[in-house]
């Protein structure tokens, strides 16, 4: 399985937010992190890849153009986890996961219930199933949002800052789950601001800056003081700890 993202241009009004942006070919088994400063265009890229906003350019999944795919097929193939779930829902958490499942599959009610419950259980949030979505904490909502994104068993998983509201243990749980989903043959792309997490969990980091790919490669190729200075305007030190892991320390702004 491979995903090819080529020439993505997005305009909001007269403003061009992404300018013919292409990614290296993404392969099953890989976790790719999109990083870069605020307003660089990371969420816009994910939303264009998920075909949620008008754009130019193509996203090909094993040679099939996502734009031309019937919506129900696309819903089966692509899982999208937004930065935040909209509030004002009157549904309980389980119902929102069932609704996400049903967007891609017609299933008898008892099977849909069981499948949604199984995903919530796997993510350690079975106890939240009957809680109103609006009554959950930010981190709990984020885990329910992950359940919604993966319940259809998509081949391409797109996640927008999936760990931003999670405590340390749940960050690890979510990122291990992403690694496992990738290892089972999926392509995983996540926006992360936390470069320590990106260094530890990503196979590849794509640094987006001003609507372009500024640099991309393995974490040790991308997380360099020079590139971090160019993209974020910070003085950074990058060192390896005794266990060989990359550590990024920010000493200040330039
Ligand atoms: N619906 C919209 N209408 C107009 N402008 C938009 C819209 N969505 C995004 N933008 C603009 O596009 C630019 C890129 O936004 P985007 O959300 O993709 O950035 P980002 O890299 O994800 O930022 P952050 O790290 O802050 O989440 C920003 O300048 C933003 O104001």
What do you see in this structure?
This protein is α/β, with parallel strands linked by helices and 254 residues long. The protein has one domain (2-253): Rossmann fold, CATH 3.40.50.300. It contains nine helices and 13 strands. It has helices at 42-49, 71-77, 93-102, 109-122, 138-150, 168-183, 195-201, 219-222, 225-232; strands at residues 2-12, 15-21, 26-27, 31-35, 56-61, 64-65, 78-81, 156-160, 187-191, 204-209, 212-217, 234-240, 246-253. The strands form three sheets. It has a six-stranded mixed beta sheet with strand order 7-8-9-4-10-11, sandwiched between helices. Helix 3 crosses helix 4 and helix 3 runs parallel beside helix 5. The longest helix has 16 residues, at 168-183. The relative contact order is 0.16. Adenosine-5'-triphosphate binds at residues 12, 17, 36, 38-44. The site of adenosine-5'-triphosphate (ATP) has 10 residues, from helix 1.
């Amino acid at each position: 399985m491979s995903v090819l993202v080529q020439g993505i241009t997005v305009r909001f009004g007269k403003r061009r937010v992404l300018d013919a942006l292409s990614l290296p070919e993404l392969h099953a088994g890989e976790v790719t992190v999109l990083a870069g400063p605020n307003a660089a265009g990371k969420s816009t890229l994910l939303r264009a890849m998920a075909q949620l906003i008008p754009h130019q350019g193509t996203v090909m999944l094993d040679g099939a153009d996502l734009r031309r795919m019937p919506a129900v097929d696309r819903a089966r193939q692509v899982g999208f986890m937004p930065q935040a779930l909209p509030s004002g829902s009157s549904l309980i958490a389980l119902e929102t996961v069932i609704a996400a499942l049903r967007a891609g599959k017609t299933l008898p009610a008892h099977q849909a219930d069981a499948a949604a419950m199984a995903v919530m259980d796997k993510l350690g949030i079975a106890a939240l199933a009957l809680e109103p979505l609006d009554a959950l904490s930010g981190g709990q909502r984020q885990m329910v949002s992950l359940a919604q994104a993966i319940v259809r068993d998509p081949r391409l998983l797109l996640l927008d800052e999936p760990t931003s509201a999670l405590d340390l243990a749940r960050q690890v749980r979510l990122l291990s789950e992403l690694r496992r989903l990738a290892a089972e043959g999926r392509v995983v792309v996540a926006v992360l601001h936390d470069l320590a997490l990106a260094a530890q969990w990503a196979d590849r980091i794509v640094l987006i800056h001003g609507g372009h790919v500024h640099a991309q490669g393995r974490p040790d190729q991308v997380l360099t003081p020079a590139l971090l200075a160019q993209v974020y305007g910070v003085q950074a030190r990058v060192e390896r700890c005794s266990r060989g892991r990359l550590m990024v320390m920010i000493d200040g702004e330039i």
